[in-house]
Design goal:
The protein is of the alpha+beta class. The protein has two domains: about 260 residues, 3-Layer(aba) Sandwich (D-Maltodextrin-Binding Protein, domain 2), CATH 3.40.190; about 240 residues, Dipeptide-binding Protein, domain 3 (Roll). The protein is about 25% helix and about 20% strand. It contains 18 helices and 19 strands. The strands form four sheets. Strands 1, 8, 9, 10, 11, 12, 13, 14, 15, 16 and 17 form an eleven-stranded mixed sheet that branches. Strands 4-5-7-6 form a four-stranded antiparallel sheet, with helices on one face. A hairpin with a 4-residue loop joins β4 and β5. The longest helix has 17 residues. The protein is globular. About 50% of the residues are buried.
């Protein structure tokens, strides 16, 4: 049965690849950017008038059962047993922003806060169902426009800042909704929400339009409403987040102890114990290491106990006694986007003039560029041997992404995209050469494009994919210049639409709902959109405004058909999130992979016991 509230299915783990020995030079290095983000002080919101709880009703046929039961707390370790290490050290890529501010960065940035802070809802690490966390139950009413939460009583803030109440939830909302906020969900969600405190333990969010993806929004499936203490803010202001080694209070099982800019971030187990989760380690530490090779070297040298390394290095790590653990679900989609379509590939001169008149960057759009031609977009798709890339770079552990921003468990999915894949998108260099030659691009006059590349957290293989694509394109008379740039410049070019004649590879993490995927990648309803076709923009409004599941499914399918048949992206793969662990110290780690950082649920990391 089609379900809106559950948008990603549980995936199957892929078997580990055969061990391949490769040489590696051990070196220990941890470095990064020592700059912190700054923003204007945040004004504390005026108190919200309270009101008696309002009886609400769930729409007929809604896919949300409320209230939801929660799982039992994690069992405490056996009496007398101890893990081999007191401090768990986890090597990850250096975040683009290092700060305690919950509103100062996009999704991946929040991994710094996931260890010590919590959200209203959570994703169960084993079943992947959404369930209560700080909120013990929730209700949905008025065609998904109203989301009401009942908070658990007695949850205490770390460092003695008192009990969590609805005032803290409102305060946390004000932080992510402020004008200076850089959180991903500000534009699609928080800018269109109002919050009403009903009493100390009941709070209601009301959206302008139906918000069917509330279970994602209010959990770390995709949400960025990280809860922090109002009492601490009232007493300390921005020093709550910005003071040297600020002890920003959360309600998680670990609490902050030290931030070392450019090096890492340390936490300790909450002294009085957590209200729900027991954790194995007395301390937890993130070690920033920008290069995958560095993170592997740290792991092999036993400087860290768990690390994120790219798949091409995993066989060597396994040969040296390490173990790869995958998330229980597919966590990300990879893709390449065409630059230069943001005023519409097939616009008339009048439509181009209108787009240029309203676009923020009109000088970037030039009619008649190669990627505005459907035959060239098709050629660039079928010139890629995806099976070879999967085998050589992803060790055969990826599955096909048949239509970017869509997923078989999301609304609008059309099975024909998979059925027609080989015919429309299958590897065919001869046909790619023919299509390009028909447009005037031959060995003597190759098509010239730029491919921008950067280190994207959680997707270390993308540059290898870009280099493989460059080689495959050369075989069909396409010359690609690869430009390696830093992540900030890469983002800026995208947002400024400085992408003409440019290819951009990235990943969709977490795999968005159809509505969000379409909005972000294929409409002009987002800051860094790639496409501005009137058909897609009009159909998107159906997803934004309708709560009728059948209507939404039809609108999503029509958008997907249009994008698929016109080759408006280069869809690549679905991937699980992976970590590589030292089995001498790490016994198990179960996490869903459904969060915006790929890794999460750090309380689930279990140590080997003596």
């Amino acid at each position: 049965m089609f379900t809106v509230a559950r948008t990603i299915r549980s995936g199957l783990k892929f078997p580990l690849a055969l061990v391949v020995l490769v040489g590696i030079t051990l070196f220990i290095l941890a470095c990064g950017d020592d700059a912190t983000a700054t923003a204007a002080p945040v004004a504390t919101a005026a108190p919200v008038a309270t009101a008696a709880p309002v009886a609400t009703a769930v729409p007929a046929g809604a896919a949300t059962a409320v209230p939801r039961a929660t799982t039992a707390p994690t069992k405490a370790p056996p009496a007398g047993s101890q893990v081999k290490v007191k401090k768990l050290r986890f090597a990850v890529g250096t975040p683009d922003v290092e700060s305690n501010r919950t509103w100062a960065g996009t999704w991946l940035y929040i991994v710094q806060h996931d260890v010590f802070a919590e959200t209203l809802l959570q994703v169960n690490p084993e079943t992947s169902e959404v369930e209560g966390l700080v909120a013990e139950s929730w209700e949905v009413a008025n065609d998904f426009k109203e989301w009401s939460f009942k908070l658990r009583e007695g949850i205490q803030w770390q460092f003695g800042w008192g009990e969590l109440t609805a005032a803290d939830v409102l305060h946390s909302f004000d932080l992510v909704a402020q004008e200076e906020s850089l959180v991903i969900l500000k534009e699609p969600a928080w800018d269109h929400a109002t919050v009403e405190i009903q009493d100390d333990y009941n709070i209601k969010f009301t959206f302008d339009n139906p918000y069917l993806a509330g279970e994602r929004l209010f959990s770390r499936w995709a949400g960025d409403l990280i809860l922090v203490s109002k009492a601490q803010w009232d007493a300390e202001g921005l020093a709550t987040f910005d003071a040297p080694n600020a002890k920003t209070a959360g309600t998680g099982p670990y609490q902050l102890t030290e931030r070392r800019l450019g090096e890492g971030l340390s936490y300790e187990r909450v002294p009085e114990g957590h209200w729900k989760f027991d954790v194995d380690f007395e301390e937890f530490e993130f070690v920033w290491a920008p290069e995958s090779l560095t993170r592997m070297a740290l792991l092999l040298a036993k400087e860290v106990h768990i690390s994120q390394i790219e798949r091409t290095l995993q066989p060597d790590a396994e040969a040296r006694g390490m173990r790869v653990i995958s998330s229980t679900n597919e966590a990300a989609q990879t893709y390449t986007m065409f630059g230069g379509l943001f005023c519409g590939a097939d616009f008339t001169p009048a439509e181009i003039a209108e787009c240029n008149a309203t676009a923020k960057w009109p000088d970037h759009f030039t009619p008649g560029l190669p990627m505005q031609n459907i035959n060239i977009r098709k050629a660039l798709n079928i010139a890629i041997d995806r099976d070879l890339i999967n085998t050589e770079i992803y060790l055969g552990r990826a599955t096909p992404n048949y239509n970017h921003a869509f997923h078989p468990s999301n609304e609008g999915w059309n099975p024909r995209w998979e059925e027609e894949w080989d015919e429309k998108y299958g590897y065919d260099p001869a046909e790619a050469r023919r299509l390009l030659a028909a447009e005037g691009y031959t060995e003597d006059n190759p098509l010239k494009l730029k491919f921008i590349s950067t280190l994207i957290p959680g997707s270390p293989e993308l540059h290898d994919v870009i280099e493989a694509t460059q080689i495959m394109y050369a075989d069909v008379n396409v010359n690609v210049l690869i430009e390696k740039i830093d992540f900030g410049t890469w983002l800026a070019r995208t947002r400024e639409h400085a992408m003409e004649n440019t290819l951009r590879a990235s990943r969709n993490l977490p795999i968005r709902t159809t509505q969000e995927g379409v909005r972000v990648f294929f409409t002009n309803h987002y800051a860094s959109w790639y496409l501005n076709e009137p058909f897609v923009n009009d159909k998107y409004l159906c997803l934004e405004r309708s709560a009728d599941l059948a209507e939404r499914d039809q609108c999503g399918r029509e958008i997907g058909d249009f994008l698929y048949d016109n080759y408006y992206s280069i869809p690549m793969f679905h991937l699980h999130a992976d970590v590589t662990v030292d089995p001498e110290f790490i016994d198990s780690y179960v996490w869903p992979g459904l969060t915006s950082a790929g890794i999460s649920h750090f309380h689930q990391i279990k140590g080997v016991r003596e």
